[in-house]
Amino acid sequence: MALKMYMATLVLATLLLLQGCSYQAMSRSLQEESMITRHELWMAQQGRSYKNVEEKAMRFDIFKNNVEYIDSVNNAGTRSYKLSVNKFADLTNKEFRATRNGYKQAPFPRSCKATFMYENVSAIPSSMDWRSKGAVTPIKDQGQCGCCWAFSAVAATEGINQLSTGKLVSLSEQELVDCDTSGEDQGCGGGLMDDAFNFIAKNHGLTTESNYPYQGVDATCNKKKESNDAATITGCEDVPENSESGLLKAVANQPISVAIDASGQDFQFYSSGIFTGSCGTELDHGVTAVGYGTAEDGTKYWLVKNSWGTTWGEKGYIRMQRDVTAQEGLCGIAMEASYPTATKC
Ligand SMILES: *[C@@H]1O[C@H](CO)[C@@H](O)[C@H](O)[C@H]1NC(C)=O
Question: What is the rounded CA–CA span in Å between residue 71 and residue 79?
Answer without folding.
Answer: 13
